[in-house]
Protein 1
Amino acid sequence: MERPELFAVVMAGGSGTRFWPASRRARPKQFLPVWGGQPMIAATCARLEGLVPWERILVVTAESQSALVRAALPRLPRENLLAEPAARNTAPCVAFAAEEVARRARDAVQVVLPSDHVIHPTSAFQETLSAAAEEAAAADVLVIFGVKPDHPATGYGYIEAGARAGLRGLIPVHAVARFVEKPVRALAEEFLASKRYYWNSGMFVWRTSAIRSAMRAHAPAIAEGFARVAAGEPLARVYPTLPSVAIDVAVLERAGNVRMLPIDYAWSDVGSWAALPGLHAADRDGNWSVLAGGAELLTEDAHGCLAYGEGAEVIALIGVRDLVVVRAGNATLVCPLERAQDVKRIVERLARGGERFL
């Protein structure tokens, strides 16, 4: 049987509040050059080169971010940018893209990717993507990538691998026994020791027909909403009424036909500033810097610090340890590296009265 066309759906509507003050409403995290010298969304699409042509890459983003997408992805066809009228999480986003792919190629296979992950090497990523596409093309299954954990992380969802369901090349395919959302530390340690659990990468592969069928079965309110759009009701009226729910919760945790491919190459969802030291080499003093636009870092007796700057400025650190220092626009962030996740608290406070800083 001839292999179906492969489409890519890039989800790019997130706000990235844990990367404030560099990530703002006017330029969220996926448009920052935090790794590799280019916007994260551009790096995501570059990893598809040779596997998915630009005419089959769709980007789903907020209406307010459309111009940012076009600037970051000048080769993306204009009709391949799908603008969400409202933020409704990933399940409506996936359904939106699935309806568009179905309109173009009803029997296609889709790979669905977040726009703000760091993955390397590209060759290993493409190998597993091709294997997942083969599995999705051959059966009515929903395929998810599971990341082999190297520490008992409590910030990720976990997937318990069930029985082996097959083999694609040298890559095993497992049934999924269950999903566990962000376990406490003791449970995460048990998961790591068992070697049966994997981090949920948030990357998926499926036939268009399979995900549409799963939506009708497990997320009927979303499926019915797009049926109304197909019947002529404006998307701008329907979309804000759809349930705001993640695709994992809406569909994958309920479906019985989920398969998992384990991956063991470098992967990071770059969840906060604390993730960047793991992606960059330290300088001779043990500090990390992500600098653009002529920014410089000068240190004197400083160690274990992360510095981020975007303009023609100098960040100087003297006698400090294990700090995050970020200069971006009209705001400066300084905090211990171990408390980088707490940036969201500042964002929440600003949302109650400091809009000009968001």
Protein 2
Amino acid sequence: MSKKVAFIGLGNMGGPMAANLAKKGFAVTAFDLSEAALQNAKEAGCDTTSDPKEAVQGADFVVTMLPSGPIVELVMVKQGLLDAIPSTALIVDCSTVSPDDSRKIAKAASERGLHFIDAPVSGGTAAAAAGTLAFMCGGSAEDFERGKSVLEAMGVNIFHAGDHGAGSVAKVCNNMLLAIHMAGTAEALQMGINNGLDPKVLSEIMLKSSGCNWSLEKYNPVPGVMENVPASKGYQGGFMVNLMLKDLGLAMEAANSSKSSTPMGAMAQSLFSMYRNGGDDRGTMDFSSIIKLFE
């Protein structure tokens, strides 16, 4: 008998993640506020519902992929979803939230006799669609092992970072570095363009040189250099600037609470904020569009 998964949140990442669970044989009941997202999930083989409490009935796993910590807390605690989840289910929160938010939700779940892991993701929309995401997990070793059966249907690199909140710490560290190397990659490519270089040739050179990085290899910010990335789709359908700024804010909070020195992270936050403030629609564009700041 197929394991039942309730999937809450069908955005650019959550939609393809839910689709991969259905493709791998899980019985998925999906919830989102967007009718279009629900329709896409239905076409991908998921059952859908307009009530999250209905989605979790009889679930073996409850996977959440929501935009922020306050929204996770709103859905889980204030709107009472935790009270509707079966005691035998494992909650897997894949949202990118602060470590404190993860610990808060874990505590609220534990008080109700529920098991919880934070499992934020990395890899972007292409990896979400391909089922090749990386998951950074926080929680008990037992719950992590139990959650792997679901996570392995959506990703290929599954890490146990430590106790509750550790996955969220790893994620904000990762995304701070992502912002730094995307900004640097965009700056370098634009300088090459300004000096008469073909960005595709320059990218090939740097990919085989010491400047090679994930942004250059998987997510080139120059339109037309790489197929099937947001830069070649009008900077749509990827990881929004608004969400990157949210994650950089979480990174700065983590830095302040641990008295860590993060001047590069702070500079990246400043650059993305400056870029977003330069145009009305920039916050909803993919974060690789930061290259427009250097044009």
